[in-house]
Amino acid sequence: MPLLESTARVHATTVVDRRELAAGIIVLGFDAPELVAATRPGQYLMAIPPGGEVCATALGIYEAQGTRASILFFVTGKRTRALAELRPGDALTVMGPLGVGFDLSGGVRDVAIVAGGVGIASVLLPAQALLRAGARVQLYYGARNAALLVDAERFVTEGCELLAATDDGSRGHHGYVHEALARAPHAPDLILACGPTPMLRAVAKVAAERRVPAQLSLEETFACGVGGCWGCVVPIAATSAQAPSFPPAALGGSDVVNARVCTEGPVFWAHDLRW
Amino acid sequence: MPLLESTARVHATTVVDRRELAAGIIVLGFDAPELVAATRPGQYLMAIPPGGEVCATALGIYEAQGTRASILFFVTGKRTRALAELRPGDALTVMGPLGVGFDLSGGVRDVAIVAGGVGIASVLLPAQALLRAGARVQLYYGARNAALLVDAERFVTEGCELLAATDDGSRGHHGYVHEALARAPHAPDLILACGPTPMLRAVAKVAAERRVPAQLSLEETFACGVGGCWGCVVPIAATSAQAPSFPPAALGGSDVVNARVCTEGPVFWAHDLRW
Amino acid sequence: MVTRVTPDLSVQLGRLHLAYPTLMGSGCYGSGIEYAPFVDLARIGAVVLKSVTRQPRLGNPTPRLVHTPAGMLNAIGLQNPGIAWYLEHDVAKYADRPCAMVGSVAGFSIDDYAYVCERLAARAEIDAIELNISCPNVASEGETFACDPALTAKVVRAARATTDKTLIVKLSPNVTDIAAVAREAEAAGADALAVINTVRGMAIDVEAWRPRLGNVTGGLSGAAIRPIAVLAVYEVARAVRIPIVGQGGIETVTDALEFFLAGASAISIGTANFTDPRTPERIVAGLSEYLQRRNLTRIGAIVGRANRGFANRQEYEGDQG
Amino acid sequence: MVTRVTPDLSVQLGRLHLAYPTLMGSGCYGSGIEYAPFVDLARIGAVVLKSVTRQPRLGNPTPRLVHTPAGMLNAIGLQNPGIAWYLEHDVAKYADRPCAMVGSVAGFSIDDYAYVCERLAARAEIDAIELNISCPNVASEGETFACDPALTAKVVRAARATTDKTLIVKLSPNVTDIAAVAREAEAAGADALAVINTVRGMAIDVEAWRPRLGNVTGGLSGAAIRPIAVLAVYEVARAVRIPIVGQGGIETVTDALEFFLAGASAISIGTANFTDPRTPERIVAGLSEYLQRRNLTRIGAIVGRANRGFANRQEYEGDQG
Ligand SMILES: Cc1cc2nc3c(=O)[nH]c(=O)nc-3n(C[C@H](O)[C@H](O)[C@H](O)COP(=O)(O)OP(=O)(O)OC[C@H]3O[C@@H](n4cnc5c(N)ncnc54)[C@H](O)[C@@H]3O)c2cc1C
Ligand SMILES: Cc1cc2nc3c(=O)[nH]c(=O)nc-3n(C[C@H](O)[C@H](O)[C@H](O)COP(=O)(O)OP(=O)(O)OC[C@H]3O[C@@H](n4cnc5c(N)ncnc54)[C@H](O)[C@@H]3O)c2cc1C
Ligand SMILES: Cc1cc2nc3c(=O)[nH]c(=O)nc-3n(C[C@H](O)[C@H](O)[C@H](O)COP(=O)(O)O)c2cc1C
Ligand SMILES: Cc1cc2nc3c(=O)[nH]c(=O)nc-3n(C[C@H](O)[C@H](O)[C@H](O)COP(=O)(O)O)c2cc1C
Ligand code: FES
Ligand code: FES
C-alpha cells in the first residue's frame, strides 16, 4: 500500500523548558530534532496530553530550531490543562508535523501577518522565514489587553514591525486588529492570518477590498488530526488546488466541496473559502 | 420534616499537612474542629476530590484531635490520585462524620484489633479510645511487606502491642494476619477488624471458632455515602439491631435483609452478617 | 433601562407548583431526609422519592454499583418495604417537608401501578406522583412498560384514573423512538414527562470473568449519558405539549441550561449529588446569574429555545431589554 | 509444566482470516493510509474503510464534531465520492495492503446496498464487506435499517446474494432489543456482526442557543458508551452463533478483554485512535501478556467466558495448565 509522502511521525519527547507568558498562557519547549527538520512554517502537531484524555489536541508549532521545538497554548479546557501541568523532565508525545503550511513562494517582499490571541503560535516560523528571505514583515497583533499580547517583543527582536491592537485600548489600536490592517496606508503583497474565526472572516473581507491575496490558518474541532475522520471540514471552491479528490459531476451545479482543515489545510487561500 | 439526628455536615477545610508514608500511601491532615468534635471511633467521611469526579470517595477518619483530623489512603484510582495531588494550603471538602463506629461499650479489657493494608486508617481512633479506657490492645497488622506496614510504630507509641504479619515474611508472621490471630495463646474479649473482604471473612471464621465477638468494618462500592441510594448493601440477619426497618412478613421465611454499609454500617457484628 | 430583578425560577408541572425547577432524581436522594444535614432542602424544588412497589422487595444482590468513565452503573433492584409498610411507617415523616415530595411508583402489572398510585396519591404528604415505568434493573420480571407505546398508554391511563394530583411519567432511553412513547403518555393523561431514566449497560471483571454487578446488567447514569438525554428531551419536546423534567448527567449550570434549551421546563439531579451535595444549590445560583446576565426574568423564557424551528411551545419571548 | 508460547491472536470471521483480532472502526481510520506514518499497519487485523454510498455525498455541515464527557459526538454524514469514483480512484491503492481491508457499504434503499456491495466485493483489493445499516447521522433521509428487524433481514439477504466474501453486519444500539435484530441478520446470511455503531445524542451551545452540531444530532462514541456496548455484545452473543466484532469505547487492554469475555471474537477501535494512534499495538501486546499470564494459548479461549451460563458458544476450554 503506498504510504502518503509524509514526514509526520509519532515523537516521544521530553519537556526541557516551560514558560508562563501570562496567566494561563504557556510555552513548552521539547527536544525533537526530526520534527524540527521536517517542519515547514504554519504546520501544527497533535499533542497527546498525559492521562489519556479522549482526543489529542492540535497546536501550532511555535518555535523550531536546531533540536528544539515548542508549543504555545492558552489553557482553555481539560486537555490544555493537562498539558499545562507538564514540567521540564516530563515525557510528552506529539505527532507531526501535520497539515500544509503557509505558501511563502513567489518572492513576496511586503507581508502583513495578522495574529489574534493564540493565533500568535502559528506565525513565528513564517515571520522568521520571510525575514530570512529579506521581506518586510508587519505583525498586526490583536488581543484583549496588553498583557495578553504575549511575546510581542520577541517578534520585534526578530525584525518584525509591530502594530498592536487591544480590545480595551491598553496598547496600540483601540479595537479590532483587522481595523488596523484596513487603515494601513499601503497594501502589502500578501496577508497571512491566524486567529479566531470572526477575526479571519474580517481579515478576508479587508483583503478582498484591498485586493491583496490572503492565506488564513483556520481552526476547527479536530478528532484524528491526520485526515482519517472527515470531522474538521470547511467548504471551499471545488476548483481550489486544495479541494479533495471528488467527482465534479456529483456537485450538482454547486462549486463547493468540504475540505479537511487538518489535511488539506489548516492554511487556505481566503478566496477559496466558501464559509 | 424531622431531620436525622446527625452531626454530619459538609466541611470546607484546608489541607495543613501531607505525608507520604510509603510509595502511594498518603496522609492528609486538615483543620476541621467540628468534625473532630463529632467523630466517634470507626466513622468515616466522604472526601470530594478536586476536579469534580463522578463520586466522592469514602475514607476512614484516621486521626481526630483538637482541631486536626486526617485521612490515610492508598492511591488506587482516579479519585485517590486527585486527592494525592493536594498540598498544604489547598482546599479540601469533606462530608462527615458518617456511619456508625465501633461499639466500645461494655467495659472490654482485652481487645484484638486486626488491620489489613489500608484498614489501618480506621483503627487508630478505636485503639486510642480503648487504651484511654485502660484496655489492653493488641494490633494484628498485616500487609504485603514490611514497607507497607505504615505507621506501625505510631500504634506502639500509643500503647498497642504490635503483631505484624506480611505476605513475604519481611516482618513478623510470614503469612496472613488472621493466622497470627488464630494462634494467639488466649482469646481476647473482643475483636475489631478492618481490611479487605477476604481478610474480614477469615477473621470472622477465627472469631466464631474461638467464640469471641467480632466487629467488622466493611468495604463496599459507595455512591452517595449517606444512605440515599441503597447501592452499598450487605445481607445481614433481619433480627440484627442494625437491620433497616422492613416488614418481617415480607421476608418469606428468609431471615436476611440488605443493610446499607454506609449508614447501618460500616461496622457490623460478624455474627449478624449473612454474606 | 435595565432593572436587575431576581429571576423567577418557579415552574408549574400540572397542578404542582415548584419554587425551584430542580428535582432530585428518584433513587438517588432517599427520602430527602438523608441529605438534610448537607443541603438546605428549602432551596430545591422537589425530592422524587425512591420508587415503591406493591409488595416489599429485597432488591438485587451486591455489588449494586460500578463506577464507569464519566458515569456509573447501578442495579439496586427497587429495594423497598412495599406500599403498606411505606404508608404506615415512612410517609408521615414528610408532614413538615420544606420542599415538594413526589412519590415514585413502580410495578410489574398495570394493576400494581394503579393500586400503589391510588394509595400513595391519597396521602396529603405526597404532592405529586412519578410513574417509574422505565426501571432497567428489574427487566427479568417482565417487559419494561416504557419500551412499548401501547403498554405505556394503558398503564398511564390506569394511574391517571386514580388521582388528580400531578402525574409525571418517567420514560426510558432504551427505545428507538422515544417521541412515540411520549405521545402515548401525554394522550393517556400524563401531566409531565421525566426524560430520561438510565441507559442499560454492563461491566465485566476481567480477572474474575464475571459481570461486575450482582444483577449482571444495570442502568448507566452520569455525565456519560448527557448527550443521549439532551437529544431525548429535544425529541420529546417537539412531540408533546406537556412539560418535561430533563435529566441524565446534569452536573453544572451549563449542563442544566442544555436541558432547558432542549425543551425541559425543569431538571432533575441524580448522580451529581454523589459528587457533591452542593450541586443543586450551585445550579440554582447559576441559573439566576445566567438569566440576569441575559436580562431574562423567568426560567420559562429559555425553555425549548435551542431551535427556533419548533412551533408547538409557547415560552418563546426572546431576550428582553 | 508450563511452556510460555506466543498466544495465537488470529481470528476467523467467515472466510476472512485476520492475524490480529483488532479492526479499526469505519469512519475513524480513513483508508488506513492516513495512519501509516504513525503505526505499523502490519500489526493490526483489518482496517474497516470509510463507508461508501451509491451516489457521492458532500456530507453534513460543519461543525461535525463535539467533545463530550469521556466521549465525542460526530455527524459526518457519510461524506464520500460515491462508489463509481471510489472504485476508479481509491480502491487500487490497497493492492499492496499490509493488513486486511474491509469495505464499508452504506445506503438508503435495499437496492443501494446490494448495488454497492456487489461492485465493491468484486474487487480483489477488498477482503470483506461491512454493511453499515446503523449510521445515525443520515436518519433524515430514511429510517435506520438496523432499528427494524424485518428491514435488517431484507437488506442483509440482498447483500448476501451479491458476494461470497465475508459479510459483517453493523448493528445499532438505538433499539430496545438488539438481540432480535442480530438474529434476523444471522438468519439472512451475515457471517459476523459488528456491535455497536454510535449511540444517538446531541449537545447544545448554551450561549448561542443552538445545537453544537451542524446536523443537530450525532453519534456518541468513546469510553462513555462502553457499558452500553459491552451489554449489547453480551446480549447478541447469547442470541447468535456467528462471531461478533465488539466495539464502543475500547481504549485499553482491560476494555478489550471486557468485550472478548462478553462474547466478541474480535474488537474494533475507533475513537481511541484519536487519543493515541499507538492504542492498537498496546492492546495487541496487552492481550498477549494477559493470555500468557493465564496460560491460555489462543484468544478464542476467553470469548464469551464472562458468564458460564450460556451454552451456544464453543470456545470454552478453561484456563489451561
Ligand atoms: C490547526 C490548529 C492549530 C491550533 N493551534 C493552537 C495553538 O497553537 N495554541 C492553542 O492554544 N490552541 C491552538 N488550537 C486550538 C486548540 O486545539 C484547542 O483550543 C484545544 O484543543 C483546546 O483543548 P482543551 O481540551 O484544553 O479545551 P476544550 O475543552 O476543547 O475547550 C476549548 C473551548 O471550548 C469551550 N468548552 C469546552 N467544553 C465546553 C462545554 N461543555 N460547554 C461549553 N463550552 C465548552 C471552553 O470554554 C474553551 O473555550 C489550534 C487548533 C487547530 C485546529
Ligand atoms: C467505609 C469505607 C472506608 C474506607 N476507608 C478508606 C481509607 O481510609 N483509605 C483508603 O485508602 N481507602 C478507603 N476505602 C476505600 C476507598 O473508598 C476506595 O478505594 C476509593 O474509593 C478508591 O477510589 P479511586 O477512585 O482512587 O479508585 P477506584 O478507581 O475506585 O479504584 C479502586 C480499585 O478498583 C480498581 N479499578 C478501578 N477501575 C477499574 C476498572 N475499570 N477495571 C478494573 N479494576 C478497576 C483499581 O485497580 C483499584 O484497585 C474505604 C471504603 C469504605 C467503603
Ligand atoms: C443509584 C441510582 C438509583 C436509582 N433508582 C431509581 C429509582 O428507584 N426509580 C427511578 O425512577 N429512577 C431511579 N434512578 C434513575 C435516576 O432517578 C435518574 O433518572 C438517572 O440516574 C439519570 O440522571 P442522573 O444522570 O442525573 O443520575 C436511579 C439512579 C441511580 C444512579
Ligand atoms: C468520527 C467518526 C466517524 C464514523 N464514521 C462511521 C462510518 O462512516 N461508518 C460506520 O459504520 N461507522 C462509523 N463510525 C462508528 C465507528 O466505526 C464505531 O463503530 C463507533 O465509533 C464506536 O466505537 P469507538 O467508541 O471505538 O469509536 C464513526 C465514528 C466516529 C467517531
Ligand atoms: S480531524 Fe479527522 S479528518 Fe481532520
Ligand atoms: S452509598 Fe448510597 S446508600 Fe450507601
State the main characteristics:
heterotetramer; A: alpha/beta; Elongation Factor Tu (Ef-tu), domain 3; Rossmann fold; 3 domains; 6 helices; 16 strands; 18% helix; C: 321 residues; alpha/beta; 8-stranded parallel barrel; 26% helix; disordered C terminus; binds flavin-adenine dinucleotide
Outline the structure in words:
The complex is a heterotetramer, with two copies of chain A (275 residues) and two copies of chain C (321 residues). By secondary structure, chain A is an alpha/beta fold. Chain A folds into three domains: 9-98, Translation factors (Elongation Factor Tu (Ef-tu), domain 3); 110-217, Rossmann fold (3-Layer(aba) Sandwich); 233-268, no CATH class. Helices cover 18% and strands 34% of the residues of chain A. Chain A has helices at residues 33-38, 78-84, 124-132, 152-158, 177-182, 197-210, and strands at 9-22, 25-31, 44-48, 57-60, 63-65, 68-74, 91-98, 110-116, 136-143, 161-166, 173-174, 190-194, 214-217, 233-237, 256-260, 267-269. In chain A, the strands form three sheets. Chain A has a seven-stranded antiparallel beta sheet. In chain A, strands 11-10-9-8-12-13-16 form a seven-stranded mixed beta sheet, sandwiched between helices. Chain A has a two-stranded antiparallel sheet with strand order 14-15. The longest helix of chain A is centred in the C-terminal third of the chain and has 14 residues, at 197-210. Chain A is globular. The mean pLDDT of chain A is 93. Residues 309-321 of chain C have low confidence and may be disordered. In chain C, strand 7, helix 2 and strand 8 form a beta-alpha-beta unit. In chain C, helix 3 (149-160) runs parallel beside helix 4 (178-187). In chain C, strands 3-4-7-8-9-10-15-16 form an eight-stranded parallel β-barrel, surrounded by six helices. A four-stranded antiparallel beta sheet of chain C has the order 5-6-14-11, with no helix packed on it. A two-stranded antiparallel ribbon of chain C has the order 1-2. Helices cover 26% and strands 18% of the residues of chain C. Chain C is α/β, with parallel strands linked by helices. Chain C has one domain (11-316): Aldolase class I (TIM Barrel). Chains A and D meet through strand 14 and strand 15 of A and strand 5, strand 6, helix 1 and helix 7 of D. One flavin mononucleotide sits between chains C (25-28, 50-51, 74, 76, 78, 104, 132, 135, 170, 197-198, 221-222, 247-250, 269-272) and B (223, 229, 231).
